[in-house]
């Protein structure tokens, strides 16, 4: 992690952050000067012209000065137009990703983030990006409105269910930075968090080659995927039933199916249940699992199977 | 209290006045007296303020530390939604116009009542119906949408949202009718000689507000109706699942709700103009500029709704135009600020409770305004949008601005409304407590917001804990100040000393020509006005004893028939 930020602004970790902060502090100091001027005058007048006991003088009305009124229309107008122009120019930069920006697809759903890379790698919660390279996120939502916000990058944009929106940034520092959802989306809104993990170009490529596995064992990687891919939402690992059956002790168990038959849960059964979930429905559970997991890369499926095997009794 | 030479004149209570000429319950419930209707509004909106305020304290208490403290995430979401909905639709929108507008506007005009007294009563009962629907929605189920009802979330959560949208729809009619009534009253009911340039600035504020109420409120009605139809009949308007567009909802919502911000703040500007002039004993500086800036704000207020949507998916071009117009609104607002401070220059300033609130308003509203400028900067808003910076900004404007001004106005008119003086020392202590508590609560929110703390979060990262703690402690001081106000105002009804007709030596007609509390018909005879609303010298020389027996020079009383 780099600097810790200032009193007002968090650490800067993107190329735009410094400019946004200069803009903030420009507006801040102009505001402070005007505030001290106006409120200082108010306090000074309140003290200087305070009513003194026994004094019964009625002050003379002040004539209206057209020049004064004009001055405090024109001077603020010039200042705000200056501020507008600067804000406008920076806004254009925020809205114009460089044409060679690295593309990543973002899907938001209540209450999780998912990031898909051009090589097919798909990962939840953690957005891995290379340092010093423009990245463009194309975002959409599966359900209600969400909003993608990384304070350290000074970028934010709403994520909508009926169209693509996008943000771009260029990370300047290796490290981890918070992702917040900033459009209210229900009970889990404040838990809809994520992390941007900024790598060096070399580390990023290695990470991408391993589809995000890094140097983890298949079991460890499977455990990470279990959370990232939201398996955790429906399948517990502590034996408690959820929307779907628990994964605890699944491997090697005889599963009762809806059609009355039973099947031994071996590697092939587990793999098939992930990629083709409605082929064999376990008795007592609805056929609710989406078929989207079929698109996971082979090494991720292997890791999930390995993880589920490790949960055997 | 600094007793003025003539502030005890007329201190004997009139034997018969609007509060006691008929004491039956029926005479209250069916009253068409604008003053009694104002009191009924005062009681109703005070209850809404109390409930919504307690909800806010609970929300702040939950945020004292990360994780669960006293309530679940679902309860928290319901509480902050109810806080927002009740504060906006049941408290702040009707607060100044319906309470103080009802009481003071006709008296400022030298009129016996508003133009349509029965419509006025109807508008109160419509408001009450809206309030009842809110309470039903509270008990029927969870309304956890925030006060903004953004689609499609608001269409996927509980059915209680339907009751809530109906409540907003109904309460809107009350707002429209009140606005209509005040516009006609201001045009047609002014006393002889009361030209537009002699109108108190409070009247200008209420007048500008009324125009916005009449023109903008129908849009929220239509929006709520569309939401209702979409949910009940499945017509695709806002829900993408049905082919609708959620951003369209935001346009409709803010097309009303941004002007609504001016419905909330313009009457407050009016009160502040009165208070600063009266307690500085100086006519307001740049009267015409202050008056017309209200109208300019009302007009420009219709053209800036898109500044709530810079990161919503609206086109970048729209965002740029909306940002530019947003700055233009800062100009008339600045004109007001400068003129208020200039009014104090070479005045003779006393610091009774209403003036303390007015000074507090200038301080807090200035912060609200400057943070608004920061939020209007396109590139900065991208970072600040939907963080606590926004929450703090609109609380500085709505609470630091409108609520503080309303408190100032309530203390200012309290002797006229009730005929009783409250405890001045307690009033001053409460004003300071509220000022300090407010800043502790909300300045910390400005800081954590620009640091990236998102709004509407039940739980938060440990690095925001210190600021959340400070904010919650501040809310206790703020709450203590407000409860103190409630305590001594209620106590004054029982133990307060009889108020003189004109305790502040003000120059508007309700003080110079009416008793405290006023007669059922306000004035014994219609005042004839030949001077401005801030001619304090005339009051000093001649009278202002509330009976017009010693007529203020230039306000000749016709001989009674």
Structure description:
The complex is a heterodimer of chains A (313) and B (561). By secondary structure, chain A is an alpha+beta fold. Helices cover 33% and strands 20% of the residues of chain A. Chain A is built from 6 helices and 12 strands. Chain B has 561 residues and is mainly alpha-helical. In chain B, helix 3 crosses helix 8 and helix 13 (388-418) packs antiparallel against helix 14. The chains are: A alpha+beta (313), B mainly alpha (561). At the A-B interface, helix 1, helix 2, strand 7 and strand 9 of A face helix 3, helix 8, helix 9, helix 10 and helix 11 of B.
Derived structural class of chain A: alpha+beta
Outline of chain B, from the CA principal axes? Answer: globular
Describe the biggest sheet of chain B? none
The largest contact between protein chains, plus residue counts on each side, is: A-B, 83 and 87 residues
The oligomeric state of the chains shown is heterodimer
Helix/strand order of chain B: HHHHHHHHHHHHHHHHH
In short:
Chain A is α+β, with helices and mostly antiparallel strands.
Features:
heterodimer; A: 313 residues; 5-stranded mixed β-sheet; 6 helices; 12 strands; B: 561 residues; mainly alpha; globular
Secondary structure elements and pairings:
The complex is a heterodimer of chains A (313) and B (561).
Chain A lengths: L16 H32 L17 H30 L6 E8 L2 E5 L5 E3 L1 E5 L3 E8 L4 E5 L4 E5 L5 E6 L4 E7 L12 E6 L1 H9 L8 H11 L25 E3 L5 E3 L2 H9 L22 H12 L4
Parallel strand pairs in A: 1-5, 4-10
Antiparallel strand pairs in A: 1-2, 2-3, 5-8, 6-7, 6-9, 9-10, 11-12
Helix pairs in contact in A: 1-2, 4-6, 5-6
Chain B lengths: L24 H5 L4 H29 L10 H36 L8 H24 L12 H4 L3 H29 L12 H33 L12 H35 L6 H14 L15 H29 L8 H24 L1 H7 L3 H31 L5 H27 L14 H31 L13 H4 L23 H7 L19
Helix pairs in contact in B: 2-3, 2-4, 2-15, 3-6, 3-7, 3-8, 3-13, 4-6, 6-7, 7-8, 7-9, 8-9, 8-10, 8-11, 8-13, 9-10, 10-11, 11-13, 11-14, 13-14, 14-15
